[in-house]
Design a protein that fits this description.
The chain contains 2 helices and no strands. The protein is an all-alpha fold. The protein starts with a helix and ends in a 9-residue tail after the last helix.
């Protein structure tokens, strides 16, 4: 199967000059309206870490409680 794929890539149908496989994407955007400072960047990074790692840490710390039998 792999040899067939390599043979197909080397054939004249799949050459880069063929226009059916040439795609160009033009991505344009405007620059930011205001400069983002260090404080804002640190706040956002801390907020994302807390929102992602907080629940994961809680689940991992309480996972051993589910294996214990209540008496």
């Amino acid at each position: 199967m792999m040899f067939g794929f390599v043979r197909a890539l080397r054939s004249t149908i799949f050459t880069p000059s063929h226009h059916a496989f040439t795609q160009r994407f033009y991505i344009t955007s405007k620059p930011a309206k205001g400069k983002v400072g260090v404080v804002e960047s640190a706040f956002v990074m801390a907020f994302i870490c807390i929102t992602v790692l907080g629940p994961a840490g809680w689940i991992l710390s309480n996972s051993s409680n589910s294996h214990k039998k209540k008496q």
